[in-house]
Amino acid sequence: MDDTPDPAQNLIRFGWEEWVALPDLGLPAMRAKVDTGARTSALHAFDIETFGPSSAPRVRFTVHPVPGRDDLVIPCSAKIVDRRTVTSSNGESELRYVIASTLRVGEESWRIELTLTDRSTMASRMLLGREALKDHITIVATDRFLLPQLSYDVYTTSHVRRAAPNRALRIAVMSREDNYSTRRLVEEGEKRGHTVEVIDTTRCYMAINAMAPEVHYDGKRLPRYDAVIPRIGASVTSYGTAVIRQFETIGTFCVNGSEGITASRDKLYAHQLMARHRIGMPNTAFAASPKDTDSLMRLVGTAPLIVKLLESTQGKGVVLAETKKAAQSVIDAFRGLKANFLVQDFVKEAAGEDIRCLVVGGRVVASMKRTGAEGDFRSNLHRGGSAKVVRITKEERETAVRAAKAFKLNLAGVDLLRSESGPKVLEVNSSPGLEGIETATKKNIAERLYEHIEGKVRPTPVRSRRNLTDS
């Protein structure tokens, strides 16, 4: 008896149309037309752009996997395998990028090459050419869907987020300075396989219209970024937040939104916002009229008092008035300069120390205690202060997280004081520096930020409006 297996029993029967998946690209269900007359397979793609080093170029593109559903967009990226001229059945030639991906059909999977092209006018979003078909596949040209069927409904569930691959991202760091924080963000992003570009905020300009809002830079439209990390200096807050609003309009994920940055830079509004969310802070008062100086100080408490310019940064414009008379003199001087300022209670028990909590994605990822230089009540590192790692209490951790949440910031430096009545928030910083806290805590803060970004920019499920499966 001949035990040789019959090759016909191992054949996979393909119809002229089948359901397939491209898991490497985060595409769990697509309908593909099988065309043995075409040598190369093709995938519908638009917004195609290259990035990365010339030695290892990559391509980014987006896909509408469901015909007629242009609101469902899946962003993808892959290594460029080749660039090839493809001639269509009507004789037109097109130079296309070629990528490789795993093809999954039923229980079988194998690697194939795909060219990227706009197939929006085609009935199928994908074409399987003969190079992609294995030797043990037979085509039944009169039938379709001979293999297990999938469903477009998968795009309305959390499966899309879970199945999304760790694709390379294109990220912009909005910064005018070549400092430690900017360099670390570039270094860490590139180490994780992403392309990170530093963009000078003030060199951006915007096309503001309803149909096609854009951000331009040095004469060219900026590409479609997966995420933007704002590092906007206090001197350009107004213009910088306008640029961030434009990215928000386009739909780009911004680590910190324009609303949170604006609120954190307006010290008066920031304190009002914290009061609204019942976040502990030093007693604070504000007035415009010089007639209210004595009443203003009484609202805060007895001397010593802190007088703080609303536009102050890094400890500049912050004065400790140790007596009532000194406070009156400082207030009169600030008013003479037509400057806006706050008056705050001085938390004596803090003894010139504060705690910086670094919050990323709603979690405190690092904290350090900052101590002011000899004779200075301000603990800012830029003014000669020192820092060391510190263990914070549960209440301090919760306060820092609540403060970042109140400002809707995904990345925040929350500065607080330890007082007899619990933690008091001094400030919420929307562009916290990384050097001091990475040095003091020996933690990789940039890595934690990229982990948060990667989790946020996965393809987002679309709310189910109707059954997406075509018969």
From TrEMBL:
One of its GO terms (cellular component) is cytoplasm. Transmembrane segments: none annotated. One of its GO terms (molecular function) is metal ion binding. Its cofactor is Mn(2+); Mg(2+). Keywords: ATP-binding, Ligase, Magnesium, Manganese, Metal-binding, Nucleotide-binding, Protein biosynthesis. SUPFAM superfamilies: Acid proteases (SSF50630), Glutathione synthetase ATP-binding domain-like (SSF56059). In the C-terminal section; belongs to the RimK family. This is Probable alpha-L-glutamate ligase.
